[in-house]
Each structure stands twice: as structure tokens, then as C-alpha cells.
Amino acid sequence: MTQFPILSSPIKVGSLTMRNRMMTTSMSPGHGYVTNEGVPTQRLLNYLEERAAGGTALICQTIAFYPRIVTGHLHPLPLGFSNEHLPYLRAMAERVQKHGGLIIGQPYAVHDWKPTPDADEEYWGPSTKTISKLIPNPMTKEHIETFKKNVVQCAVTLQNAGWDGVEVMAGVGGILNRFMSPATNDRTDEYGGSLENRCRLTVEVMTEIKKACGQDFTILVRWSPVDFIKGSLEMEESLKIVTILEKAGAALHNLAPGWHETSVPLTTKDIQDGYWSWISEKIKTVATIPVTTAYRNTDPDVMEEILQKKKADIIGGLRYNIADPEFANKVVEGRPEDINRCICCCRCLDDVISQAKPLNYCGVNPHLGEELEKPLITKTNKAKKVMVIGSGPGGFSAAVTAARRGHQVTIYERGPRVGGCLVMSSIFSPIYDRLNTYYKTILRKHPEIKVELNTTVTPELVKSVKPDAVVVAIGGHPVDLDVPGAGGGNVIKSHDFLEMLNGKPPQKPGIVNKVMWNCGSVFLKFFYTPDLARTFMAKFPWPLGKKIAIIGGGLPGCELGKEMMHHDRDLVIIDDHKKIGHDVGGSDRFHITSAFKKSPHVTLEPLTKVKEITNQGVKVVHEDGSEVFYNVDTVAITLGFDKNMDLADSLMHSIKELYVVGDCTNPARMADATKAGYLAASQI
């Protein structure tokens, strides 16, 4: 018996049977996965197959239902509205179905549309009424008929290609959703006014799909019961929409909270796993067909709890499936500790949605992008002795990949525990501790990966070990601040915490500092947990006092500031960039900076430089030359990292096979280090 009995159990959806309760929501992975002409590449086929083989019961895939010319911000999508598209659509279906999975196509009707093949893609809606700066092109009756025919033709094409069903996109602020919402629909004809009229176009699309494809062809509906848009849908109306959609032939309610335009955070790591199941729970009070809850579902225990409490029937999501393609198999087989869980860093969303980049990076899974065109692991013909220096994301990724390929791997870590900077980052972003836990599981289950803790690697040590290959992943040098007072006892630098956790107390002036840093380092070296460190910071005004100046408004400074807000600290965040949060991912940036701006305890100082630090605080100078002094207890320097090539350079002439990965050669985000470590080990 699995510990996830409901999550692992089959369920009937229309004429289909899902082998378990885990499905993916629709996606558009972008360039490299699909050509500009709308043809899926080997990369997309492999992506789909990897996840179907990993046990995912149902995969949704976005499909272009009208001719598209890919330019600028547009993502290429597989075309699916003509017989000429059948060969590659069949190939996509075959890759999923041969592993027992189901594949559903979603005609992508979210932002733009074009009524004729030679027209430009533009923003369309029921009327010119809008909730943003974009003014929709109002659809005439002729446009509506063309739109319906486009979607129905796509459904027929998918059915002819052997796909298992179609999903009507009526949520997240898409065209059908704009018709359903009073915030964007002020029509006075049969497509506006009453709830039934506003839902009419969605109902007609579904009805005509049934006529064209047959009553047994399964239709899912992706819709947003709560929009988080002023004047839009609320739960009272949405409970009535449930019956309207079911009468039209829906086999599944796939619920998506919020519109893309909402200011409410929906998918960030600050939202608890399973939070949005309150919406599906409400819908289930009137629904007679299965209901899917989506967004922020990455923990199998929470997924099972949602199903046990009958808050939903199916768990939908995308990032958990990007992070670990074998998530479903590991759940069904009762191996949750083996799941490489999503850490909600949002790199995938930031790239694909915010910047129109392809799906190449994930914080925990390097096998994306070009890597999908190659086998996950290729066994080596000659086992080598591999020395991996550093156990952060880059080093650990390299070590695990090299070991799986058959090499003899030893990780060297100068601290008392694996994880590198993750050990410190987990204090300020607790979800990162998932990755530390995963590392420990791998080491426990793979004793062939040796670990040497509390070991600072020198060229002499490397020479004595005599490795065949070396991977240097020791992290970057913290960027320092060169102003008077920067070495004062009230100044905390990025690596001071990490040094203390590693049992190496930073040397600070003042007897109190010396005692506290030394005692803290001894205690935390043996008893550290992220929760313990957070509790300590919350209850004690040391090493971070009541009033804190954070120098550096990038990702490190924002994460520190966000955590300190929870502990009632008064903050001033200072940065010489135009905006605080300048390098924070698009999914998080608005919500973090908005929280700072709303807080009476946070002052933001962009376009500002530090002039001097004293025992009483920090003096800053603005772009216009004006100066301000902030009286604070602690000055925290969080300016990020520079390259740290000292060790690598010292080994350059003595090690023939030398790889340098992560922040020590290219300070960037966690996903970059994970990918770099994987690529290095793949070459050994």
C-alpha cells in the first residue's frame, strides 16, 4: 500500500481514465521546443515522453488554433488546425500514450488572436472595456463565428491525430474569460449582460466541439472562479458557472486562480503548498464532475491531504513536473524522499512568461533545453577519480551526475555540512531546505559518493589526492563595500552567517561581538537547523538589531529584507540601481517590492550610494547630491558576488581535466549553477 492512496488511484474523467490523480497544466516551452513554423522538435517530443514515462497521468499541451507568425515576444506553439499538422501531432500523442499517459490539447486563446490568416495578432475581447492599458479589439458577430470555427477545427484536428481530448481555455483573463467577466464585458447583445449571456461564447464553443467530435470526446475547461480583478467574477457567480459549464458538456473543472494581470501573488514561494484548494473546495460543493486544483502544488503530502479532505479530485500543476519528471512514479511507488522537489524559485516562469525565453533552466533539474536532446545519463567507458570541490547546487549537481555515469566521486566541503550557500539561504527562504534534504537523501542512498567535510582544499591537497578530473564549485567572493566604517562591529557581510554556521566565526571588533560570534559558531556548528536560526533571529536583537540598513537591493538584500519584515525590524534598503529588486525574478519582483512599499517599517533608497558607516548608523548620498543619515543598529552588506577563480587558477597547469562551475566563475541564479555542474560532469 502506498502512503498516497488517493493521489495514486485512478479516476474517470469523461470517457477517459486517469491512472492516478496527477496532471500537468498547459504549457508553451518556447523556442527550441517548437520551430517558428509551428512544428514540434525532438526536444519537445522528448520532454513529453520523459514525463509520461515518469507516470504523469494526463498532460495538457497548448496548441495554436490559427496561423501564427512568430515575432518579438511571441512563443512558437505547435500548429493544430489542418490535416498537414496531423503527422507531428500524432507523434506527440504517441510519445505520451505509449507510456500509459493521456494527452489533451488546449487551443491557446489567452492574449492575442487573428481573425484572418494575413492579419496581425492583436488583443481581442468582447468590448473595449478593459482593466489595463491595453484596449481590446471588440469582436463582432462575424469575429465570434470565426473564433468558434477556429477552435472547433483545432479540436477536430487533435481528435484525428489521436489525442485524448481538448481543453477549452476560459480562464486567466483570456478571450473567453473576458467575455465571462463583467469587468471586461459591457456588451448589450446576447453575449453581454446576464451571467448566462457572458458565458454564452464558452458554452457555444463547447457545444460545437461536441457536435463536431462526438459526445464521447472529452472536454476539459480551464477557468478562473476568482479573478482577483476589481469588478470581475466572485465565488457567488462562479458557483452558478459550474452548472452552466457542466450542462455544456464539461468533463473536468480545471481551476486557475486569478488573471495574469492580477496583483495578488499566486505562484511564488511565499504561498503555501495547496493554498488555492480553498477555491476547488468551494466549487466541489456544487460540481458533479471532477475538480482540479492548481498552482503551488509541489508537496505530495499536501496533495494527498487535499484529496483526503475532498477539497479537490485531481492535483494539477506544472513546476513540480518540470522539477522532477518522475514525480508521479515516485509517489505511486511510495518513494517521496526521492522526489527532487520544486523550490519555487520561479526561474521557469520568469524565463518563459516574463521574458519570452525558452524553458532551459530549473533550480533543481538541469535536464531541460538542449539537454533534452541527449540521454539523461550516459555511462562512461572509463571510470575516473573525480574531485568535486564545494557542495552547493553546482558542486552537488556535478557530483551526482558524475557518480551516476560511473565515476568515483568525492565531494570536498570546507564546512561541517553539505549544501554550500544553501545552508545560509535556507534561513531566509525556508523552501530551499528541500534541496538540502534531497542532497542528504542521495548521499544516504548512494554511499559510493564520498564526502569530506570540514576540509579546505588547497593545491597541495589536490596534488596528494591525484584526481583524474576536478570540478571547482566553491562559490563567489562576496562583493565588499569600500567606504569609511565598513569594517565596524555593527557591519554584517554576506558570508558572515555562513562562516558562523561553518564553525569559523568572523573577526569583529568589540568584546560582545567576539563572545557572541564565537559562541554562536560553536553552537550552530553542531545544532544548526534553518528553523533554529530563524527563531534565534526573531527573538534576539543580535547579530541583526532592531533597526537595519541593508546595503544592496538585489535578490540577496530583498530576501533578507523580506524575512526581517516578518520579525518586526525597521529597515532601510539602499541601492545605486534605479529600482530595488533590479535582479529579482519577474514572478517575485512586484510582490516583494510592493510589500516593502506598503510597510510603514521599510524605507527604500534607490539611486543612492553609501558615503560612510558609523557606530550610530549610515550616511548616504542621493543622485542629486543630497545626504541623509539613517540611525540604525546593524548595517548588512548584501551586494552579491564576484568571481572567485583563485583556486581554479592555481590548478590550471597541474590538472588536465579541470571544470569551474557556479558563482566562482559566473555569479548568477541557482539554476545556472545546477545546469553548469551537470554539463561539466557530462563531459568527464
Summary tags:
28 strands; TIM Barrel; FAD/NAD(P)-binding domain; 8-stranded parallel β-barrel; 5-stranded parallel beta sheet; 3 domains; 684 residues; 34% helix; alpha/beta; globular; Rossmann fold; single chain
Concise summary:
With 684 residues, the chain is of the alpha/beta class. 34% of the residues lie in helices and 17% in strands.
Uncertain segments are none
Overall SS class: alpha/beta
Cα radius of gyration in angstroms: 27 Å
User: Could you say what the CATH topology of the largest domain is called?
Assistant: TIM Barrel
Count of structural domains: 3
- Terminal Cα separation, in Å? 41 Å
The CATH class of the largest domain: Alpha Beta
Q: Overall mean pLDDT score?
A: 93
CATH superfamily placement of the largest domain: Aldolase class I
Based on the coordinates given, report the CATH architecture of the largest domain.
Answer: Alpha-Beta Barrel
The level of helicity is 25-40%
**Can you count the helices?**
23
Describe the strand arrangement of the main beta sheet, using strand numbers: 3-4-5-9-10-11-12-13
- Let me know the largest β-sheet: 8 strands, parallel, barrel
Q: What share of residues are in beta strands?
A: 15-25%
Could you give the count of β-strands? 28
Approximate shape: globular
Describe it.
The protein is an alpha/beta fold and 684 residues long. It has three domains: 11-373, TIM Barrel (Alpha-Beta Barrel), CATH 3.20.20; 385-476 and 643-683, 3-Layer(aba) Sandwich (Rossmann fold); 529-640, 3-Layer(bba) Sandwich (FAD/NAD(P)-binding domain), CATH 3.50.50. 34% of the residues lie in helices and 17% in strands. The chain has an eight-stranded parallel barrel with strand order 3-4-5-9-10-11-12-13, surrounded by six helices. The protein has a five-stranded parallel sheet with strand order 16-15-14-17-28. Strand 24 and strand 25 form a beta hairpin. The longest helix is centred in the first third of the chain and has 20 residues, at 141-160. The chain is globular, with a radius of gyration of 27 Å. It starts with 10 loop residues before the first strand and ends with a helix. Keywords: Flavoprotein, FMN, Iron, Iron-sulfur, Metal-binding, Oxidoreductase. Its cofactor is [4Fe-4S] cluster; FMN. InterPro entries: Aldolase_TIM (IPR013785), FAD/NAD-bd_sf (IPR036188), FAD/NAD-binding_dom (IPR023753), NADH:flavin_oxidoreductase (IPR051793), OxRdtase_FMN_N (IPR001155).
